[in-house]
Each structure stands twice: as structure tokens, then as C-alpha cells.
Specification:
about 450 residues; 9 helices; 8-stranded antiparallel beta barrel; Beta-lactamase; alpha+beta
């Protein structure tokens, strides 16, 4: 069972949620924090039926992350590859040369919206109904991040064809039901909040229409309760069950095209948003549809998450990041105790190495991993490495992600860079050699 928050923490979280509902003029807002697999605290403000955790709201683009999970399951099964061109799995579109991975990361240059009427407020049709053409390709492949609802509509069709069933049935069978998200559906099932628009200059509301989006459902169709969204937050933290390999989830959270060592940024992985804020990295997704706003973000280091759902088209500031900050300040995670662990390499291989005249440190960091980075107080490239069966080491992150490290007695060989025990060791295979006159 989730560990409930302390009474003083609950008051702080409630105060933030109440302020967000009032200042954002949301007809209703439900929010919660997640740890230990589920909601540790939640509240409802405004006109919310009880129990507030069982009222459905529309998730909007959080549906994209659910779609991405099924795509990654297909990848793990060998049914497709991220570098596959779309044409191989969905022939006949103008995006045939764009890859599955580019679509997942919004790097395919697809139009932000589908052609025709505004898909979020009108009934949707099939791929043939869209009649996609060259004008729907707005950027070159991998030129820049360009958020595309259309791209995820196409991915939903890839899922449907690969599984031989509708997108609705595929995500229910492979993600929602296995995670216990029994109150998450493509259409609202009572009790469900009514989608509303709030007038900008008066405290009056207007109902928003709701339809099935057809092909575009994969971009924003799902409805869920706060309890179910909390379960999905636990999934993003790492409680993946039998739905997805934890390593695949880790892969999805790697930002595409952004230097994740920078102090602050917002990026996109494989179907998830990755945001750096106030020194923390958050993974999840926001959502909006006419009449609704939603958010699910987790701090994987802290192993906490926050979720929120509101029935307003706009105006409500994201409350999830504030809730996570409040929880971290009031009840910081107590990390596991340090304990000795064996080094994966002989101890004499660890310690200071030099790339040219620049000192670096190779050290064991637990879990069978090595870390190579500049000595404290210096700037430089850093990465963690995991062992391969052939005795080499594979970069897991940072500048050397995907690169191969080879460790010898007198040098390290990393992607043509040679690290030596002394600066420009004349006895080591330094590229270009070392001036025989030495240092002077």
C-alpha cells in the first residue's frame, strides 16, 4: 500500500491544490502525489463527485505515452525497429521515409495537426479519410523538434495493423488492464467530469463537444480517474510489472536532441516529455483537450510522482511540479544505505587518467558500472559504462553514450581518445606520438 503523507505535508499539498483551482478558475480539479505504487495523498476541489479519485477526466496527450508503450513492446518483440521507415509498416503516406523513432520523438517533420476540421472537436475518421499529401510534411527529417499530433495518429495505426485490432483494444489489452487501470477508457464512463470552457472575462462556463477521434485517438483519446493516473505514474517511476522491460522504459526517458547535462531544458524522449526544472529531471506528459487539462510527471530519482486532472480548456497552471517540490521539501526520500561492493575491474585500473594534459577519474560506482569524468572542480565530458561480454565497456549516458571503452594496463582507449597514467605518456599509444624532447 502507498505510504500516506504526514498531516502537515497534506495541508501544504492541499493549500497548493486549492490555490490552483481557485486562481485557475477550474470548475473542478483533482490532484495527488504518488509513491510506493499508488496515491499517497489526493484531493478534489470544486464540483467533484465523491469519491474524487474515481471520476474520469480526459487525459489528452498522455494518451501518446500509452501509445508509445505499445510501440516499444512491438520493438522489444522484434516486430519493428525504431530505425524502420514508416512505409514498411504503414504504406502509402507522405511520411514513408520517416522512421518510427522519429515519429515517437516528434522529429519526423510531420504537421502538428491532421488536415480537415479541428480533430479535437470533431468526429474522427480513418487514414483514408485524412487524404494526407505532401503539404502535411512541414520539415525535413530530424531537422528539429516539432510536436505532432498527426505523427502519433500514424503510430496508433501502426499499432492497430501490427496487432490486428483497433488502437482502443490494443492499449487496453497491453497496457491499461495489465496495470490495473480498469477505469481508463476511450470514451467517458460515469462518473465523469463534463468538459467545460471558462469565459476569459466572466465566471461563466460553456460545454465543450466530445467525440471519438478515429485515427487521431492515439494522440489524445483516453479518459482516466486519478487512481488510474496514479498507477500510470508508478509505472513511469519504474513499477512496470509485465508490461515493459525496465530497460526499455529507461530508454524512453532519454531526451532526443538535447544535451541532458545542461542546467535547464525541456525535451522529448520516446513518447514522453523530459523536463529539467530547478535542478531536478521530471519525466511524464501533459495533456489538454477541449474542456480538459491533465498532467502526470515523476521524479525517478526521488521515486515520487504527481498527477492532476481538471475540466477546463485552459487557464489552470500545472500543479504537478509544485506538488513534487512540496513533497520533496517536506518528506525527502531516505536513500538506501551505502554498502561496500566489489569493483568490476582491478583496483589498479581505477583512479586518475589523463586525456592529454586534462586529468580524469575512472571509478567504480556500484551496480557493476564504471564512471569516467573530470576530477572535481574541472569541466569535461563524463559517462557511465556497463560491461560487455567481450571485456569492453559500453557508454550508457553522457558524451560517450553508445561508444566503446577498452581498458589496458597503461591506457584507456575510448572512441579514438587515449587516456594515459601521466600526461602524454611517451610509452602509451598516444595519437600523433609524443615529442621526444618531452615537457620543457
Amino acid at each position: 500500500m502507498p505510504d500516506p503523507v504526514l498531516p502537515t505535508t497534506a495541508r501544504t499539498l492541499l493549500a497548493r491544490t486549492a490555490r490552483a483551482q481557485r486562481e485557475g478558475r477550474a470548475p473542478s480539479l483533482v490532484a495527488g502525489v504518488v509513491r510506493d505504487g499508488g496515491l499517497g495523498w489526493s484531493a478534489g476541489r470544486g464540483e467533484v463527485p465523491e469519491p474524487h479519485t474515481d471520476v474520469q477526466y480526459r487525459l489528452g496527450s498522455i494518451s501518446k505515452t500509452v501509445t508509445a508503450v505499445v510501440v516499444m513492446r512491438l520493438r522489444d518483440e522484434g516486430r519493428l525497429h525504431l530505425d524502420d521507415p514508416l512505409e514498411r509498416h504503414l504504406p502509402g503516406t507522405p511520411f514513408g521515409d520517416r522512421t518510427i523513432g522519429q515519429l515517437l520523438s516528434h522529429l519526423a517533420g510531420a504537421s502538428a495537426e491532421s488536415p480537415g476540421g479541428w480533430w479535437e472537436r470533431t468526429p474522427g475518421g480513418s487514414l483514408d479519410d485524412l487524404r494526407l499529401g505532401p503539404e502535411d510534411v512541414v520539415l525535413g527529417a530530424a531537422r528539429r523538434f516539432h510536436y505532432s499530433n498527426l505523427g502519433f495518429g500514424l503510430l496508433g495505426e501502426v499499432v492497430a495493423r501490427a496487432r490486428g485490432m483497433s488502437w482502443d483494444d490494443a492499449v487496453a489489452a497491453e497496457v491499461l488492464r495489465p496495470l490495473g487501470m480498469t477505469r481508463t477508457d476511450p470514451r467517458p464512463v460515469a462518473p465523469a467530469a463534463a468538459g467545460l470552457a471558462v469565459h476569459p472575462w466572466a465566471d461563466v462556463v460553456l460545454p465543450e463537444p466530445e467525440y471519438h477521434a478515429g485515427l487521431m485517438a492515439a494522440a489524445g483519446q483516453l479518459w482516466a480517474t486519478l487512481t488510474d493516473l496514479g498507477r500510470f505514474a508508478a509505472f513511469l517511476i519504474g513499477d512496470t510489472g509485465d508490461v515493459l522491460d525496465p530497460g526499455t522504459l529507461e530508454e524512453m526517458t532519454e531526451p532526443a536532441g538535447v544535451d541532458s547535462s545542461a542546467a535547464g531544458w525541456s525535451a522529448y524522449g520516446l513518447g514522453v516529455q523530459v523536463i529539467r526544472l530547478d535542478g531536478r529531471t521530471y519525466v511524464g506528459h501533459g495533456g489538454s483537450m477541449p474542456g480538459f487539462l491533465a498532467g502526470v510527471f515523476v521524479d525517478r530519482d526521488e521515486r515520487t510522482g504527481a498527477v492532476s486532472l481538471a475540466n477546463s480548456t485552459s487557464g489552470v497552471d500545472p500543479v504537478v511540479f509544485g506538488l513534487l517540490a512540496d513533497l520533496r521539501a517536506a518528506e525527502p526520500r531516505i536513500v538506501e544505505p551505502w554498502a561496500p561492493s566489489p569493483s568490476p575491474v582491478p583496483l589498479d585500473r581505477l583512479g586518475v587518467w589523463f586525456w592529454g594534459p586534462s586529468p580524469y577519474v575512472l571509478r567504480s560506482v556500484g551496480g557493476g558500472l564504471l564512471h569516467l569524468g573530470p576530477i572535481p572542480g574541472r569541466n569535461g565530458r563524463a559517462s557511465r559504462f556497463e560491461a560487455r561480454d567481450d571485456g569492453t565497456w559500453l557508454g550508457r549516458d553522457g558524451y560517450f553514450a553508445g561508444e566503446t571503452l577498452r581498458i589496458a594496463e597503461d591506457h584507456l582507449d575510448l572512441d579514438t581518445f587515449i587516456f594515459t597514467r601521466i600526461p602524454y605518456d611517451p610509452e602509451a599509444p598516444v595519437p600523433g606520438g609524443v615529442d621526444e624532447r618531452g615537457w620543457r
